[in-house]
Amino acid sequence: MLQPKLLCQDIAETPQFWIDEEGDVVPKHSVYYLIPEDHVDLEELAEYLNGPEARAWLEANCQMAANGFYRLQTTVMEDLPVPERFGEVIQDTLI
To answer: Where in this chain does the record put each TaqI-like C-terminal specificity domain (predicted)?
Structure first.
């Protein structure tokens, strides 16, 4: 967990991912993290996940919370389609 990773909030107004380049953020309770395979560029993956294709999929598939917020739950994130260049098991690393 103490390595570079992507972070996202469990409940968010819009699905968004951030890069923890130093690996010093320890997510708790309301933050999920994603540790991609070694060959995956974090910036490229974050750009894809924050892009229109992934955002549209998330908005269509995430459960809604109060006040129109999205729930980015593991069960949904595991099904998020990602291009092969990001690895076959990328969803399995989402905790």
So the answer is: 3-82
Kindly tell me if the per-residue pLDDT of 94 is higher than 70.
Answer: no
Q: What is the pTM of this model?
A: 0.82
**SS3 of 87, please?**
coil
The H or E element spanning position 36 is: none
In whole angstroms, give the CA distance from residue 91 to residue 36. 9
DSSP letter for 66, please: G
Q: Encoding tokens for residue 36?
A: 């991609």
Phi and psi at 19, nearest 5°, equal -95, 130
Distances in Å between the alpha carbon of 23 and those of 3, 9, 34?
A: 4, 17, 11
Query: How many CA atoms lie less than 13 Å away from 28 in the CB half-sphere?
Result: 2
